[in-house]
Structures are given as structure tokens and as C-alpha cells.
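Worked example 3. Consider a protein that binds zinc ion.
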Amino acid sequence: MGAFDMKLPWRETEAGKQWLRAYKNRWKKENRKKNLEKARAYGRKRYHDRDKAIYRTIRETVLNHYGGQCACCGESVYEFLAMDHIFGGGNKHRKARKKDTLAMWLYENGYPEGFQVLCHNCNMAKGFYGRCPHGSTISKLFKSAMAIDK
Ligand SMILES: [Zn+2]
Ligand SMILES: [Zn+2]
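Given these inputs, the predicted complex is written out as C-alpha cells:
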């Protein structure tokens, strides 16, 4: 046996074999764990993507049902739009719905009245100032006059 012989003497000993076996087993186990995690992550992502697709379809359906454009400024780009409670009460309502989204809730409850489509700009303005600078959403004054949302 020369100095450059590739035969590794430790592999021939009982301790060496045991070590090698243990090493292989550990490697297999870790790999299995890694693969499992990868598979799980993949499954989660697929689930998430499918959920997102369903949610988007429902959202589009609901937005279209309520006119498909901002009730205030006429914005019709889907990404800018959201459902809005005409008379407010969003927080109270949100609590009752728990983690469902408003669009989902409207869909499941047969499109009840009292909701409108607003773009995020008009919605924010309405939330902050009680009315949108465009001038066509319901103001807080109107709400208190009607004694709604108390
Ligand atoms: Zn708008
Ligand atoms: Zn507006």
C-alpha cells in the first residue's frame, strides 16, 4: 500500500464503519427534515396562492356588484378600490366579522345595502375628515343629523 493509495484504513475498522453508518444516518435524517420543510413551505405557498386567487375573484365580484367604481370620484382601477360602509360603523362591524374581510362578508351575506365602493383616496379622506374633498361622500354632520352610527 503506497502513500497515495486511496484506500482509507479507518473505513476498515469496526469503529470507522460505525462512525460512517452513524454519519450517513444523521445525514439522511437531516435531509429528510429539510425536504419535509421544503415540501411544507411549498404546500403553504400553494395554499396561500389559491386563497389569494379565490379572494381576488370574490373581491372583484363584490366590487362589481356595488358598481365597480369609486362612488365619489369614479376611479375604476381594481387595485385602488375598497368596500366602504356608507354610514360608517366599520370598526364595530369589523369586530363582529372577526377575521373575515368585508368583501367576503358581503359576498356571504348576499350583498346587503348600506355599502359602497370607494377608492382608497376617497376612503381615507372620508375617514380622516368626515368627507372627501371631492365633496360627494357623506359627511359626519350628515351622519349625526341622521343619528346614525352612535
Ligand atoms: Zn375616489
Ligand atoms: Zn373623493
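Take a moment to read the result before moving on. Residues 21-145 form one domain. The two ends are 95 Å apart (CA to CA).
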